[in-house]
Amino acid sequence: MSHPDEMFYLIRADILPESITKTIEAKKLLESGEAETVHEAVEKVGLSRSAYYKYKDSIFPFNSMMREMIITVSLNLEHRSGILSKVLSFVADRGGNVLTINQTIPLQGMANVALSIDTAGLLLPTTEFLDELQGLEGVKRAVIVGRG
C-alpha cells in the first residue's frame, strides 16, 4: 500500500475548501510577481500565513504537474558529421530542453545516444515528437526508455 503522502486525487476546483483555493491564489501572486512576499500575498487573498504554509507544498494545478515531464530517449544514430547536431536542433525547435546527453563510441558506423529531455515546453504531443524524431536523416531508431 502507498504511503499517504504519495496519494494523489483529481478534484474539481469548485468543491475545494476556501483555504486551499486561497493558497492557490497566493501562490499565483508570488509566481507572477504581483506579490513580493508571502505576507503580502496572503493579505491580498485574505488567508492566514499558517494556512498558506500548511498547504503550499501539497497543492498544485493539474496542468503544471502534467507539463513537468522528463523523458529519456534512446537513439541509434549513423556515425556521420552533423547528425547529433540536427537531433539537438530538432528538439530545441519543438520546444524541448535537452538536460543530459550520453553518447557511446561509434561501432560499425552507429552510435547510441541517450537524451534526457524536459518536455514542459514541447509544442506537440510526445508521440508525434518521437515519430518526427525517428524520421530525421541519420536517425535509425528512437524510443522512449524512461519517464520521470
Number of strands: 4
CATH fold label of the largest domain: Alpha-Beta Plaits
Provide the succession of SSEs: HHHHEHEEHE
**SS content category:** alpha+beta
Low-confidence stretches: none
How would you describe the overall organization of this protein?
The chain is of the alpha+beta class and 148 residues long. It has 2 domains: 4-64, no CATH class; 68-147, Alpha-Beta Plaits (2-Layer Sandwich), CATH 3.30.70.260. Helices cover 38% and strands 23% of the residues. The chain contains 6 helices and 4 strands. The protein has helices at 18-32, 38-45, 49-55, 62-67, 83-93, 126-134, and strands spanning 70-78, 97-103, 110-118, 139-147. The protein has a 4-stranded antiparallel beta sheet, covered by helices on one side. Helix 1 (18-32) crosses helix 2 (38-45). The chain starts with 17 loop residues before the first helix and ends with a strand. The model has no long low-confidence stretch (mean pLDDT 88).
Short description:
The protein has 148 residues and is α+β, with helices and mostly antiparallel strands. The protein has six helices and four strands, in the order ααααβαββαβ.
Topology:
Blueprint: H1 18-32, H2 38-45, H3 49-55, H4 62-67, E1 70-78, H5 83-93, E2 97-103, E3 110-118, H6 126-134, E4 139-147
Antiparallel strand pairs: 1-3, 1-4, 2-3
